[in-house]
Each structure stands twice: as structure tokens, then as C-alpha cells.
Design brief:
Largest sheet: none
Shape: rod-shaped
CATH superfamily of the largest domain: RNA polymerase sigma factor, region 2, helix turn helix motif
Strand content: under 5%
Number of helices: 7
Number of strands: 0
Radius of gyration: 37 Å
Number of domains: 2
Structural class: mainly alpha
CATH architecture of the largest domain: Orthogonal Bundle
């Protein structure tokens, strides 16, 4: 057992100060070797965490298996690896969210195009069929009320609606508005 290990058992605060002054550079290099081009702050945070883990675990750690210096370096390395793994999984989640987001955007764009095509097809029906379809399916008005609004018989409204829907159906299947 070295002097720092013995001091850690007797006077933990003083031992922490000694560990910080003696091993900070070494522990920093151990963390930086794993974290590579990470920010200085991230590496320092990893170093601080390593000192904290060893300090808080001083009662449970078996220093006969290794020195305080070895525990600090191994802890810093493991914490750095955990940070890299967490960062990689966060990137995967972000990429998954972006993929999902682009799929949702694509679906919304397709729905908008389809809705626009439908409105254009309805407008191409001409009067009064265009108004009949809009009143019925966009404003949810019953054919009796549509008949009153347009000054036509309810029978005429129902018949024109059937014909207009048949035309729209043909159009949706790639046909022409006037095909039979």
C-alpha cells in the first residue's frame, strides 16, 4: 500500500488534494486518449468524475489489487468509453428521429398533393356539380339543404352527385373526366 492509499483511509480530504495534484495530468491523458477530439471541458468533466468515483468508493475499493493511480486511470478510461457509447447511441436516436421525421414529411407532402389534385378535379367538374360535391363532402350538408341552396330538386342533387362521384372515380384511376 502506498502513502496516498493509506492517507485515503485516514484523511480522505487531504488524500484527495494529494491525488489531484499528483495524478490530474495522468488521468487527463487517460481520458483524452479515449475521448480523442472531444472538448477540453468534456475531458475535464470525465477526469473530475473519475476522482469523485474513486473518492466516494474508497471504502469499497480493494487497493491491494492496484494503486490509487491505477484505479483513477482505469476509472477515467471507463467513464470516457461510457461517454462515447452514450454519444453514439444519442446519434443513432437522432438519426432514427430524422428518418422518421423525413418519412412523416414525405407522407404529409403526398397527402397535400393528393388533396390539391382532388380539389382541382372537383373544380374541373364545373357548375353546379362542383358546388354539390363541395357542399356535401366539405361542408357535410345533406342533399335536401344543398337543393335549397342551389334552387334545384333534391332528386337532381342526388343524381348529379352520383355522376360527379363517378367522374372523380374515373379520374382517380387515371382516366379522363369525360370518359364513360
Amino acid at each position: 500500500m502506498d502513502a496516498v492509499t493509506e492517507l485515503l483511509r485516514r484523511d480522505p480530504e487531504r488524500a484527495l488534494n494529494q491525488m489531484l495534484s499528483a495524478y490530474t495530468g495522468l488521468v487527463y491523458h487517460a481520458a483524452a486518449a479515449v475521448l480523442g477530439r472531444s472538448s477540453h471541458e468534456e475531458i475535464e468533466e470525465c477526469v473530475s468524475d473519475a476522482f469523485l468515483v474513486v473518492y466516494n468508493g474508497r471504502e469499497r475499493l480493494d487497493f491491494s489489487q492496484g494503486s490509487v493511480k491505477a484505479y483513477l486511470c482505469a476509472t477515467a478510461r471507463n467513464l470516457a468509453i461510457n461517454r462515447l457509447n452514450k454519444r453514439a447511441s444519442a446519434k443513432e436516436v437522432l438519426l432514427d428521429e430524422l428518418a422518421l421525421s423525413s418519412e412523416e414529411t414525405e407522407s404529409a407532402a403526398i397527402r397535400n398533393l393528393e388533396a390539391e389534385a382532388l380539389v382541382n378535379a372537383i373544380l374541373a367538374l364545373g357548375e353546379p356539380d362542383c358546388k354539390i360535391i363541395l357542399y356535401r363532402y366539405y361542408f357535410n350538408l345533406p342533399s335536401k339543404q344543398i337543393a335549397k341552396l342551389l334552387g334545384l330538386k333534391q332528386n337532381t342533387i342526388d343524381q348529379r352527385m352520383r355522376r360527379a362521384l363517378a367522374k372523380l372515380n374515373r379520374l382517380s384511376k387515371g382516366g379522363n373526366l369525360y370518359d364513360k
